[in-house]
Amino acid sequence: MNEMSVLNVMKSIVPITRFNKGEASRIFEEVQASGPKIVMKNNRPACVLMSPEKYESLMEMLSDYILQEEAERRLSSSEETLSQDEVIRSLGISQAELDEELEKGYQDVLAGRTKPADKVFEEIRKDCTK
């Protein structure tokens, strides 16, 4: 590890006693200005503080990685696969209809008209058991 990275790590450490002294607002400002902080309790890392934007970015990267792993697993699998054209034909829709529905979904996301995946699957299960 070079000197600069050691210095950065040292600057990112925050003893929990600073919170006990009422410095939370100052620590949050430091997180926004200089990046994540590692909160130490009893000389051990207790948590990491980061901006909501950084957290969201990390969660998106994790999600992308999980999707990539799944795609690679499926591509290397011996299971039968279908092309997009075959799926569209089996559903009885056209490419234009699919594009239109995808655009509607995209507009819903932009407008905040979304539901958590677990709620959607719960609704699907209910519909299937009727």
Polypeptide structure, described:
With 130 residues, the protein is mainly alpha-helical. It folds into 3 domains: 3-50, YefM-like fold (3-Layer(aba) Sandwich); 52-81; 83-130, no CATH class. 66% of the residues lie in helices and 11% in strands. The protein has 7 helices and 3 strands. It has helices at residues 3-12, 17-20, 24-34, 52-76, 84-91, 95-110, 117-128, and strands at residues 13-15, 37-41, 44-49. A 3-stranded mixed β-sheet has the order 1-2-3. A hairpin with a 2-residue loop joins strand 2 and strand 3 (44-49). The chain is elongated, with a radius of gyration of 23 Å.
Topology:
Layout: H1 3-12, E1 13-15, H2 17-20, H3 24-34, E2 37-41, E3 44-49, H4 52-76, H5 84-91, H6 95-110, H7 117-128
Parallel strand pairs: 1-2
Antiparallel strand pairs: 2-3
InterPro entries: Antitoxin_Phd/YefM, phD/YefM_antitoxin, YefM-like_sf
Protein name: Antitoxin
Family: Belongs to the phD/YefM antitoxin family.
